[in-house]
Each structure stands twice: as C-alpha cells, then as structure tokens.
Amino acid sequence: MTAGGERDGSSVPDEVWEEFLRTSVEGAGDAPKEPSARDREAAAPTPWRAHSPAARPARPARPGRPRRRKGWYVAGLVASLALLVVAVDPGGIVGWSGDGDTSGKPLAQESARPDQAPPAEPGGRPTLDEPFRGSPAARWAAGTAGITVPDAKATGWMTKPEVERALTRTRDFLAASGLDPAVLRGGRPDRAIALMNPHQKDVTALVTASLRTPDKDHDPLLLFSRFDPAQARPVGDVVKTRGRLSFREGRLGALEVTADVTYVYPVAPAGGGDEVVRVIVRRETVVSWDDPSKVVTEKGTFSLLSYKTDMTNGGCGDATGYFRPEFGGGGVAGTSGETVDPYDRTSPIAETRPDCATATRS
C-alpha cells in the first residue's frame, strides 16, 4: 500500500473496480429516495474482551476505543468467544408477524433507525432467477445504493468538503469489504485494508492474522464478507443492502463515522444445483478520520474504533475465514428456545444473545 492509502495490489483492476462502484451506486435507480438523515450521535462502542485497537498518536499516548465482536449463524451452531449463534427455522417463520407496506414497491433509503421490523414477504423460497424471493430484501436497493450517506457539514478538524470525502471513503470501505465480487469469491480484501490506518499496529496485526490463520479469536468475517469457492457460489451479481452512515465529532477533533448496514447474500452450492439460500450479515462499524497533527495516520485512511457483527447462516464449527452456509433444505432449530429476526433493524446489535437462537426467517 502506498502512502496516503492509495489502492494498489488489489484483487481486481482499477477500471473494473470503478465500474463496480458505479454500478453498485446505480443498481437501484428506481428506488425512491428520502432526504438524507440528520446528523445523529453514534452509540459509544462497547468494550470487548480482547484486542483493544489503538491509533498510535504523535503525542501523547492515545488509547484506542475498544471494540466488541459477535455474530449469529444458522442451523444449530455453537457460540465462539463473543460470537452469537442463530439457527434457521425449517418452517421459514417462527412466531413472527409484522405490519407495514406490503405493496412490493422499492423502499426509500433508510433515513433513521426504523421503529418496526419489515413485514413478511409473500413468494416462497428463493430461486436462481429470483434469489431474494420471499425476503424483505426483495424491496431493498442493491450495493451501495442501499447505504444512506448523510449531508456533510464541517465537523472537528474537517471542512465540509473533507467530511463529504471521508463519508464517501467510508462507504468505499463498506463496498470493498462487503460487496467486492472478487472478495466475495474468496479473494483478499486489499482495497478495504488500504483504507485502514497502517499505523494502528494492533489492528493491522489482527487483520493479518485473521486472513492468514483464522481462528475463534481472529475471524476475518467480522469485517470482510468472503465465501469458500469450493463450498458456495454467489447467485447473480447483486447483493441487497439496507443501512446508513452517521457522524459526529470524536476525540481530539476527529470525524467519527458510524456505519450500520445489513447485507443479504444469495448463494448456491459450488458444485452446481438450483438450491438457493441466503446469508444475512449486519455490521455496526465505527471509524475515526483523525487529525494528522494529533494522531499518526496516513492521508486517506481511518482508524478502526469498534465493530459488532451479527451473521445468519454463515456456517458452523471452527472459524475458516469464509462463510459456509448450510445447504440441503433442512435447517436445525436452535437450542435456546429463543428466536431472532435477522431483518429487524429497530435496535442496535444486542450486547448479549442466547448462544443458539432460531432465526425466524432467511
């Protein structure tokens, strides 16, 4: 990576990446848009039991904001460290009901935290031709078009144009970590890593270890979306998203940006066949665009403050560095007796969940 966080050594050529970003922004052009969200304060990150990242300051020592990581999976999985586990109910809906617009029209962008979960969608199981059939994501936008970016204003050490650029680069990170086709097919997320402050040594070490030798303490899926190409293949080239960015002034006058985004990935078995399942991932990520006169950083990069991740149908067993969805048509109900709706965005990601709950829908 060059100084200033320029994108080199990436998994796809620059012209392909630029086309990918353009099409992901335009992917849901028919979706009506609401005005951008007001600036809202991002919730303070919750301490995590290990790996407290710190951006190395110029002077004096600046402790990093700790991060918590967790996730929940499908099909009767086992919790790992702070990972939470969710199983898919074979019947599709377990005691869930919702109300709201069921007209099938594309949804406007999310401008604030919703006050209710999305309603049930008719249509049955997903197919190769209709991979979002029966899912609330059928009405969501595609790619970065589903991620609301608020109007910029001067904040902390940054002018309005600088804030706008930082928000765009934060969205670029979300695209590079959760939408890049090469990364989804198991590639290394070099473009996402290039946007992370290389002087934040513990985070750099954690990311490197996670990609090289993933385990329960080093799971790249908490930041990056990747499938094992020997086990699953993406269906089509569309990932549905719903979420938003918000920002505020952080420590030492930094611009603190919070991203809360849910991704829905339809996949099929790598070896062929027409079975389609969906992997649902929600990430809350907080980053800091630091003042280089106060914190050692590189131009165009951010420091990672915290992240929390929920995963549904991402696989079970030991960490492999890849989502490994369950195929075969029969999910296994969770053992805790509790249920979780992976499409419910009415609250922040919970700090505690049962070790193995049942996902009400996929």
Structure report:
The protein has 5 helices and 10 strands, in the order H-E-E-E-H-H-H-H-E-E-E-E-E-E-E. With 362 residues, it is an alpha/beta fold. It has one domain. Strand 5 and strand 6 form a beta hairpin.
The total count of strands amounts to 10
Beta-strand fraction estimate:
15-25%
In sequence order, what are the helices and strands, one letter per element? Answer: HEEEHHHHEEEEEEE
Helix content: 10-25%
What is the structural class?
A: alpha/beta
Topology:
Elements (H helix, E strand, L loop, with lengths): L13 H13 L58 E4 L52 E2 L4 E2 L11 H19 L2 H4 L5 H4 L7 H12 L19 E3 L5 E10 L5 E15 L7 E13 L13 E10 L26 E2 L15 E4 L3
Parallel strand pairs: 1-10, 3-5, 9-10
Antiparallel strand pairs: 2-5, 4-6, 5-6, 6-7, 7-8
What can be said about this structure in brief?
This protein is α/β, with parallel strands linked by helices.
Task: For this entry, give a set of tags.
14% helix, 362 residues, three-stranded parallel sheet, alpha/beta, seven-stranded mixed sheet, 5 helices, 18% strand
